[in-house]
Design a protein that fits this description.
Pfam families: DUF6076. The chain has twelve helices and seven strands. The protein is an alpha+beta fold. Bound molecules: zinc ion.
Length: about 325
């Protein structure tokens, strides 16, 4: 059935996706690489509900296609899949797979079209993905989060995660069999390679690797999403989420931290200067020790409020000048 190539593997710190339409001799083999786990993480955080109409549209077009076998309905499905393929690499697989299915129907028009082009498979993607995303998120939280404060081994946490399924159905991701090949990669070394037959194969392959490696996960202090952190790395911000100016959390976060530090340095400097000035007033007899200590206790409280962001630096300075 496959008149296309699509496979993926992990090598060093990266994941590779190689694909090609074999029906066109001149089509180039495309290769995309991402840092390890990036595609799974993007899939986990993919906002699928705004895309639901696209899936409904494909469903309707397929039902028309069952009746008419017309080119317009086929085009409606394929152009939507092309649009989706731009949003995530896993959907590139979906596009190639469905293209091959349509070609098969063209070649064997007497075959069972419903079976070759199962419309429900597309129609159910948003709700299936929604369930899957929640299960993956719980796996990160319960098993791989290094900040969870639990010292238990990953294997033990994994068992506890899987056991929760007994009390709450659809809680845990259920590992499934997939078939991989041990092959020479484009980098010239051998690796376990997946030639997926479904979207869920791709998820399984990544998720399994992530648990096998006991990949440490952390919530980014900037965007609040999970990201994978390499061993002996203390990264606090992810490199995945990009803001409207094209800066990643790591870039924006570093600047923010620096600005916070600079502000807090200024704040403490200001407080110390004022403290010394007023302390000297005691010797000069301008203020009583009691009044000074009362002031300093209040000032310290205000300083800490400001450091916690409950009060602006400008307000703190205003308070100092008026107290
Ligand atoms: Zn982030």
């Amino acid at each position: 059935m496959a008149d296309y190539l699509f496979y993926t593997y992990f090598e060093d710190g990266n994941e590779y996706f190689v694909y090609k339409d074999l029906r066109f001799e001149r089509s180039h083999t495309k290769e995309k690489d991402f840092p390890f786990l990036e595609s799974l993480l993007r899939f986990t955080y993919l906002d699928i509900w705004p895309m639901e109409d696209l899936f409904k549209k494909m469903d309707r077009a397929l039902l028309d296609f069952y009746r008419e076998h017309d080119f317009d309905s086929q085009r409606a499905v394929m152009s939507t899949l092309e649009e989706l393929a731009k949003k995530h690499i896993y959907f590139e697989f979906l596009r190639l797979d469905w293209q091959a299915r349509f070609r098969l129907v063209d070649r064997y028009p007497d075959e069972d079209t419903h079976r070759i082009l199962p419309h429900k498979q597309l129609r159910h993607i948003p709700s299936d993905l929604d369930t899957l995303q929640k299960q993956i998120m719980r796996l990160f939280q319960d098993v791989l989060d290094i900040d969870d404060g639990k010292k238990k081994p990953v294997q033990e946490k994994l068992q506890a995660y899987l056991d929760k399924e007994k009390r709450e159905s659809l809680y845990a991701y259920q590992f499934k069999p997939i078939s991989t090949a041990y092959e020479r990669t484009r980098q010239g070394t051998f690796a376990e390679v997946l030639h997926p037959t479904s979207l869920s194969d791709l998820v399984e392959f990544s998720l399994r690797e992530c648990v096998k490696r006991e990949q440490r996960m952390r919530i980014c202090s900037y965007c609040g999403k999970y990201f994978a952190i390499p061993r002996r790395n203390t990264a606090e911000f992810c490199n995945l989420t990009v803001d409207e100016n094209g800066h990643t959390c790591r870039e924006v976060g570093a600047v923010k931290r620096w600005a916070e530090k600079k502000n807090s340095d200024e704040l403490f400097k200001e407080y110390r200067r004022e403290y010394k000035k007023r302390f000297n007033w005691i010797k000069a007899g301008k203020i009583s020790p009691g009044a000074f200590y009362a002031w300093s206790a209040t000032a310290k409280g205000k300083r800490d409020e400001c450091a916690e962001g409950k009060m602006s630096f400008a307000e703190f300075r205003k308070w100092l000048s008026e107290s």
